[in-house]
Amino acid sequence: MLRWIVGSCLQFRFVVVGFAAALVVYGIIQLKNMPVDVFPEFAAPTVEVQTEAIGLSAEEVESLVTLNLEELLSGVPWLESIRSESVTGLSSIVLTFERGTDLIKARQMIQERLTLAYTLPNVSQPPAMLQPLSATSRFMMIGISSEEVEATELSLLARWTIKPKLLGVLGVANVAIWGQRLRQMQVHIDLDRLREARLTQQDIIAAAGDSLWVTPLTFLKASAPGTGGWIDNRNQRLGVNHRMPITTPEDMAKVAVTAPNLLLTGKTMSLGEVAEVTFWHPMLIGDAFVNNGNGLLLVVEKLPSANTLEVTRGVEKALDELSRGLPGVKIDATVFRLASYIEDSIFNLTKAIMIGAILVILVVGAFLFHWRSALISVVAIPLSFLAAVIVLQTTGATINTMILAGLVLGLAVVVDDAIVDVEKIMRRLRERTGDSNAPISKIIYETTLETGGATIYAAVIVILAVTPIFFMGGVSGAFFEPLALSYLLAVVASMIVGLTVTPALGLMLLGRAAHGVGESPIAVWLQDRFDAVLQSVVKAPRAVSVAAFVVIAGGIGLWPFLGQSLLPSLKERTLLVNWTTPPGTSYKETYRITSRVSRELQSLPGVRNVGAHVGVR
């Protein structure tokens, strides 16, 4: 089989080289279009179910909502673990499934179970599944502030204008608004006036609630909205439309209070006489701090495997379009921007690759001392790299830290194979004796078979050595599998290129050009120096053994002091600080601490901006 492959490539060398050129062009295009992220999708499939229960305490949410849902969802197929969190007014349940589970099927199973969640209290909203999120999840934090627009109006703009626009960007999974102050009409009871009028709080709630067409309070009459309908005439149907008669606090203040004691005495009293009616926002569970003070913080999360760079550009384009119609509103998209790290990394990596490519060309040219043979090596290296990239692209992989690490490790093997294969062909061409017209194709064929067999055995050894990584399991296995896969693909691609493209190019470019070409003077000089050093080492085995023992002992002694980390140390310019206060800390105190810390951090040299949010993440 190996003989047939090498012989066919030499016979159809122009076809092989043409296919290799097309592969290079296609690989460059695919490399530019591949999705980019920092980390691979190493997290197990998870689904989060949230249930709002406004007005319930954390203990009530736990007992009335969370426990019921946990019991309902505990028997979902493929479920590995279930975790819950109950806070004031909100229940959150995170279900983690076995690795390899189809997320769509898991979500379907959960949705079928949630149809049975009719035992929840009426005060709670129906349970809702959140969108699936990437392992990196948050990729942007956007600060929204204004000195001209009032806080509740700014919140309305963020909820009904900015958020829907961002959710329409391809790849965006969720937009969470921190510091939101939605405007609502509120009735603030004056206890002194209420006591003087001999009314109860229930009387005020009934009067205010029944004055509306619809209310979520089931114990009030307004909880059952009035029927609509239509009026038909000879040629037209007119729909009945209920228009809310109360639109301002002044209208609500005129609503009459109908309490039993007032009916007995014949007195009439309005809400405005015992309470203050005004527009305000609900009590804040959490808040946001953007740079110099109050503002909104939009946390944007992305879908799994979404291209971080493309999604970020889409969000920034949407914000640019929105800013034209939002005068007086300041939008800061640089509070946190994951794409900045990726862009800096791509720039640094491109610079390193360019410098490395120049060094490789210089080293190959110096050691081979023949521009044709150096050209073959220089062509084989990127060809092997791009072939591995194409295979990764077909599997749906993203360019991330671990993929690049595997490709860089494999690049060392690629460079070695490319140089060694060409060097052996050149050596055999120089060593040929007898008739100078002996077929060069035969020499290249035999040399390729000789090196190809060793290359195949070496590739098999590498594959067997790396295979255990695919059976690690857990987060470590999912994190390092892309590294092992990209490394193996680079090694296999190098082997295939060495058996096909390298001999084809050698037959096309070398020919008689290798005849009369001597050894590289640099290689000869280094060989002489190496021989001298090797002879000195051989003559002093004891000293070498002692030195080796000292190095090994020193390494063993330093091993306990070396740190261990699953994630590599990245040069990220964004610092995340988690600040946890004791349970029961008030919102005002938490916000005071957060705002003070944020201002002090912002005063430090080199800090560009600070964004923070208060509440449960």
Structure, explained:
By secondary structure, this protein is an alpha+beta fold. Among the domains are: 2-33 and 369-519, Multidrug efflux transporter AcrB transmembrane domain (Multidrug efflux transporter AcrB transmembrane fold); 42-132, Alpha-Beta Plaits (2-Layer Sandwich); 184-217 and 245-280, Multidrug efflux transporter AcrB TolC docking domain, DN and DC subdomains. The protein has helices at residues 2-11, 13-33, 58-73, 103-114, 151-167, 191-196, 201-210, 249-253, 260-265, 271-274, 308-323, 338-368, 371-394, 401-431, 440-466, 474-509, 521-539, 541-558, 587-602, and strands at 46-52, 79-87, 90-97, 128-129, 138-145, 172-178, 184-189, 230-232, 237-239, 275-280, 287-290, 293-294, 296-302, 330-337, 611-614. The strands form five sheets. It has a four-stranded antiparallel beta sheet. A four-stranded antiparallel beta sheet has the order 6-13-5-14. The longest helix has 36 residues, at 474-509.
Jot down its keywords.
19 helices; Multidrug efflux transporter AcrB TolC docking domain, DN and DC subdomains; alpha+beta; 4-stranded antiparallel beta sheet; Multidrug efflux transporter AcrB transmembrane fold; 15 strands; Alpha-Beta Plaits
Blueprint (SSEs and pairs):
Elements: H1 2-11, H2 13-33, E1 46-52, H3 58-73, E2 79-87, E3 90-97, H4 103-114, E4 128-129, E5 138-145, H5 151-167, E6 172-178, E7 184-189, H6 191-196, H7 201-210, E8 230-232, E9 237-239, H8 249-253, H9 260-265, H10 271-274, E10 275-280, E11 287-290, E12 293-294, E13 296-302, H11 308-323, E14 330-337, H12 338-368, H13 371-394, H14 401-431, H15 440-466, H16 474-509, H17 521-539, H18 541-558, H19 587-602, E15 611-614
Antiparallel strand pairs: 1-3, 1-4, 2-3, 5-13, 5-14, 6-13, 7-10, 8-9, 11-12, 11-15
Helix pairs in contact: 1-2, 1-15, 1-16, 2-13, 2-16, 5-11, 12-13, 13-14, 13-16, 14-15, 14-16, 15-16
